[in-house]
Amino acid sequence: MRLSMSLLSSLGKKIFMGITGLALSGFIVVHLIGNLALLNPDKDPFNKYAHFLTQSLGNVIYVAEISLVAIFLIHFSYAIIITIGNWMARPTGYKKVTNAKHTSRKTIASTTQIYTGIIIITFLILHLLHFKYGESIMYTTMDGQEIRDLYVVVYNFFSNIWNVIFYIAVMILLGFHLSHGFWSAFQSLGLNGLRFTPFVYGLGYVFAVVMAVGFIFFPIWVFFTTGGTL
Ligand code: HEM
Fold first, then answer.
1. Percent of the chain's residues with pLDDT above 90
2. Is 143 left (phi over 0), alpha (psi -120 to 50) or beta?
3. Is the CB of 120 under 6 A from ligand 1?
4. What is the tens place of the pLDDT at every residue in 14-39?
5. Domain edges within the chain
6. pTM assigned to the model
């Protein structure tokens, strides 16, 4: 009872959002670094890496995947609870979003956080259907073993201009989401202070830009190296 009270308290919700947000940020950094193998013209290193992650780690990968799903679900559920709470707390709908200059961090990114979050979750479902569980999955033989040919799946996907445009659009929104989320996570965890805040705020922007530009780079790279179809 006490635990459920503290999980639903305003502070509890913020702390959970902060911790899960930072954990998801850590995941996308690792994902971006892993995807660098896609830039190699030889498909084996990327396929080997993906195979190692999913097949060679034994039960560790199941624990990691269940944890990742749980973290996404906690983050998303608390975001919905907090947003509904905020809406209900308002006596009337605000007509205009204003920025209280230095005392406030209200930006387009902060006021659209729930919408960019919903778009990212929707993107993720499509992303997994395409790259992890979908019919698009192909197979290749490496060292006498049949493994998933994810490299070719990714290259086929991004040889289509509409898929490239869709990814670029979502990655820009991901950048917006991270630019506010990163700073906000530190604030929720109380890891800021007068001198530290501008630094964390700046770091959040740099992180968001590096992640968005990094992920945008792959579809564009693949499209041009495959001479994709317009
Ligand atoms: C151009 C950008 C991206 C490419 C090329 C890409 C590629 C892939 C591939 C090939 C997989 C399947 C891995 C496997 O089954 O072993 C995958 C899984 C995944 N991707 Fe991405 N991805 C991109 C962007 C993103 C972004 C921006 C996110 C998060 C916001 C994301 C989240 C995930 C998740 C959660 C999984 C499942 C991981 C797992 O089950 O281990 N991806 N991605």
1. 63
2. left
3. yes
4. 899 999 999 999 999 999 999 999 99
5. 7-84+111-226
6. 0.89
